[in-house]
């Protein structure tokens, strides 16, 4: 054997010894000893889901009636980003965020970003221009 081969074999053995030590130490430590705590019991933060009252105070609730909107009837007076919807009794209501905000849409290729949002947004903007261009 050459000197380089002996050094290479020695480095390989040293590598496996270090890995073995790490595995041994890793098996002796686990997360079972950590006390289970509920959120808010000494942990940082107080995150939770919003209540229905908070949702109603923060966002505008709008009856979703696209058939009449396309005819120019019962047009909504709320502008903003639709962030959710709710169906009650066969009627759909939208929750609209009226804040001056931007929207970041993230999704993989082919999930429908353009088909479901951008194209609909273009249609809404064109309709808005047709209906309101004489007012501004």
Structural class: alpha+beta
Provide the low-confidence segments as ranges. Answer: none
* Side-by-side strand order of the widest sheet: 1-3-2
Major sheet characteristics: 3 strands, antiparallel
Q: State the end-to-end distance.
A: 89 Å
Q: Specify the overall morphology.
A: elongated
Give the H and E element order: HHEHEEH
Please provide a brief summary of the model.
The chain has helices at residues 3-27, 52-58, 66-70, 113-132; strands spanning 60-63, 81-88, 91-97. The protein is of the alpha+beta class.
Describe this structure in words.
This protein is α+β, with helices and mostly antiparallel strands and 136 residues long. It contains 4 helices and 3 strands. Among the domains are: 58-100, no CATH class; 104-136. It has helices spanning 3-27, 52-58, 66-70, 113-132; strands at 60-63, 81-88, 91-97. The relative contact order is 0.08.
Write the layout of secondary structure elements.
Blueprint: H1 3-27, H2 52-58, E1 60-63, H3 66-70, E2 81-88, E3 91-97, H4 113-132
Antiparallel strand pairs: 1-3, 2-3
Keywords:
single chain, 3-stranded antiparallel beta sheet, 4 helices, 42% helix
């Amino acid at each position: 054997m050459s000197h380089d081969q002996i050094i290479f074999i020695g480095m390989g053995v040293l590598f496996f010894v270090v890995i073995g030590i790490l595995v041994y130490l890793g098996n002796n430590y686990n997360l079972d000893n950590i006390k289970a705590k509920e959120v808010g019991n000494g942990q940082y933060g107080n995150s939770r889901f919003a209540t229905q009252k908070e949702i109603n105070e923060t966002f505008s609730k709008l009856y979703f009636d696209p058939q009449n909107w396309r005819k120019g009837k019962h047009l909504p007076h709320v502008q903003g980003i639709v962030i959710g919807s709710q169906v009650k009794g066969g009627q759909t209501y939208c929750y609209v965020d009226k804040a001056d905000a931007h929207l970041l849409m993230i999704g993989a290729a082919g999930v429908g970003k353009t088909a479901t949002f951008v194209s609909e947004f273009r249609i809404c903007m064109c309709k808005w221009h047709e209906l309101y261009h004489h007012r501004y």
